Amino acid sequence: MIDFDLAEMYRVETRVLNQSVRRNIKRFPSDFMFQLTKEEFDILMSQIVISSENENLKSQLATSRWGGTRKLPYAFTEQGVAMLSGLLNSDIAIEMNIAIMRAFVYVRQVVLNSQPTDQVAELEKQMRELKQYIEESFADYNDINEDTRMQLELISRLLAELQAKKRIDEKPRNPIGYYKPN
Predict the structure, then answer these.
(1) Are residues 8 and 76 in the same domain?
(2) pTM for the complete prediction?
(3) Total domain count for the chain?
(4) Which end of the chain, C or N, has fewer beta carbons within 10 A?
(5) Which of 39, 61, 42 is nearest to 50 (CA)?
(6) Structural domain for 156, as ranges
């Protein structure tokens, strides 16, 4: 979750939330909280769906929502949100933290208990189709390959015959007569 969303839910200013985190930074290792990069922030901003004719409205919304932030926002993991509950000690913060933790647990249960049989069946079907396609392609390849092998064998035989003939033609001949040159 992003710091400004958490601050809104806890009904505190984002700077107050971030101030509390900075004062207790040892409680937030990189797997509990991290700062978004410029690219990640731009992707987050691109998720705001507003027609192109209202681009001005989009920038105003970003400025008002993030307060014209000069720093990139922080993102908190489930453990980071849990750690925030010890820092923000208002009743609203505690209630919201309990609700957020329950949401994380619910999402985890849904993911773990979902029946992906349809997906598995679809993947199995795609794998069978892919296997069949590959087998057909290899059969075609082997046919072509067999023809190519036969042609290469014929070419090799012809080259061997030509080399043998060349050796015979180039072999030095003994001169005719009784005289042998040294």
Answers:
(1) yes
(2) 0.49
(3) 2
(4) C
(5) 61
(6) 116-169
